[in-house]
Specification:
Strand order of the largest sheet: 15-12-14-13-17-18-16
Strand content: 15-25%
Low-confidence stretches: none
CATH architecture of the domain at 105-223: 2-Layer Sandwich
Structural class: alpha+beta
Radius of gyration: 23 Å
Shape: globular
Mean pLDDT: 94
CATH class of the domain at 105-223: Alpha Beta
Distance between the termini: 11 Å
């Protein structure tokens, strides 16, 4: 259904009475444009909203949604706008509900080990606040300094620490949400077990705003880990790097916190952007960045000595140990700023997000190289080697126009995503489907797609909640 209702002056006045004038943006084109796109690429993918609302609590959201549902006005929930799949682009105009004012950390419960937060809390703010209490929030996407917790839950965001701690959904104990009919309902809470029927909270995780708007999130906390150590390990080839992922896990006898992969081209561009030089960066075909946690320095030394010997015996050019903050920051800066570095050299670079079994990474990388030659396009890759989540990023050649590049880059990333699905993976590992990958979802998950769509139709029969996303 795309036959949506219109926003009238009467509806605008009703929202102003509900929220106050400062929380309603209307007819200010420049201000509205700030809410027309996300990090998927404002140069390609954007659509102007008719209205932006900034509620302060769940009751206000409930009233907004009731009016929108009655009038059949589309709603697009929006967090920080840091998404990479177009999930917060208001494809049909209508209302953008911006959650930036709902940014309160409501409670850090040291008894039940639970944080209760509103969806607009910046992930890093939560991590710092929790750390001050001696606890730890392990849901840690790479965009930790900019992303909102609500957006992380909406896309089931991953990140570098999934191998040890799992993606965002693993940490969600409960969700309070406003459903498309305006009803406020809570699923789960501070409890860790509940076998009383369907686990609906985890149906909401990854739903990308298509089933409701999160207003309160209950997150699991754990004791704060001890010390950590980072290893930078260069290899001559991708195959050598990836074949060592299982080796280092077995030899260390403990799960690493992270195993990140970054290829040769990414290192070259990242080093230039960050104005640093990494060892072997001219010879290495790929690097692994490995992090371990331990209770003390002695335990960490035992781990990295075992792992280092095993890696050197399996083809590593060297194993560099960063056991202080300065050296660790140098190692992680290139990986953390990877996309920013690529955008510095090419503002039109899109980033893919595919996941495959770890053992299939060499195959998908070889396929990407074939695609790169076929299209005569550079495609640097970085990603989370331990969980098989890779991000290919085709870079625009100078001789291709921007409109042509949009078509070509979408074709390249679609072919890579389809290949990932054929290898036993999926078209998205952590960024979500949004509207950019909805056709890929339909092609690769036919029966599952039908089941998901039937759930959407039943919960949101008027299709007002983030229409055009996922389906």
């Amino acid at each position: 259904m795309t036959d949506f209702g219109k926003i009238t002056s009467g509806i605008i006045e009703e929202f102003k009475r509900l929220l106050g004038n400062s929380a309603v943006i209307y007819e200010d084109k420049q201000a509205l444009e700030n809410y027309s796109s996300d990090e998927a690429g404002g140069k390609y993918y954007s659509h102007m909203p008719d209205l932006v609302l900034k509620p302060n609590n769940s009751k206000q959201i409930s009233e907004i949604v009731k009016i929108a549902n009655k009038e059949r006005i589309p709603i697009t929930p929006r967090g920080a706008g840091s998404g990479l799949a177009g999930g917060s682009v208001p494809l049909y105009g209508g209302i953008v509900i911006c959650l930036e004012r709902m940014n309160r950390i409501l409670e850090i419960d040291k008894t039940d080990l639970v944080a209760v937060v509103e969806p607009g809390v910046v992930t890093n703010d939560l991590c710092r606040k929790v750390a001050d209490t001696g606890l730890y929030y392990a849901g840690y996407p790479m965009s930790v300094e900019t992303s909102f917790v609500g957006g992380n839950v909406a896309t089931n965001a991953g990140g570098s620490k999934v191998i040890k701690y799992g993606n965002t959904g693993h940490h969600v104990l409960g969700i309070e949400a406003v459903l498309p009919n305006g009803e406020i309902i809570q699923f789960g809470g501070k409890r860790r077990k509940d076998s009383s029927g369907y686990d609906i909270k985890h149906l909401l995780v990854g739903s990308e705003g298509t089933l409701g708007i999160f207003t309160k999130i209950f997150l699991n906390l754990i004791p704060r880990p001890g010390k950590n150590v980072d290893l930078l390990v260069p290899f001559r080839s991708v195959d050598e790097a990836i074949s060592n992922v299982s080796t280092l896990i077995i030899e260390s006898k403990v799960l690493p916190t992270a195993i990140e992969y970054i290829d040769h081209l990414s290192i070259i561009l990242g080093s230039k952007y960050n104005n640093i030089e990494l060892p072997f960066q001219e010879e290495a075909g790929a690097y692994l960045i490995i992090q371990y946690e331990g209770q003390d320095k002695k335990e960490l030394e035992s781990i990295y000595e075992r792992v280092g010997d095993a890696l050197l015996n399996s083809g590593a050019l060297d194993v560099f140990v960063a056991d202080n903050r300065t050296n660790s920051e140098k190692i992680w800066r290139v990986r953390r700023n990877w996309l920013e570095a690529l955008k510095f050299f090419d503002p039109y670079v899109p980033t893919g997000d595919v996941v495959i079994p770890t053992s299939k990474i060499p195959q998908i990388v070889r396929f990407v190289k074939e695609i790169s030659k076929e299209y005569n396009v550079d495609i640097p890759i970085a990603g989370h080697a331990a969980d098989g989540n890779l991000h290919p990023a085709p870079m625009k050649p100078q001789n291709i126009s921007i409109p042509e590049w949009k078509v070509i880059s979408e074709e390249i990333l679609s072919r890579i995503a389809i290949k990932a699905a054929e290898l036993g993976g999926a078209v998205s590992g952590e960024h979500g489907i949004g509207f950019i990958k909805k056709e890929l979802l339909r092609k690769t998950k036919n029966l599952q797609y039908k089941i998901m769509k039937s759930i959407k139709v039943n919960i949101d029969p008027n299709n007002i909640m983030n229409p055009g996303k996922i389906f």
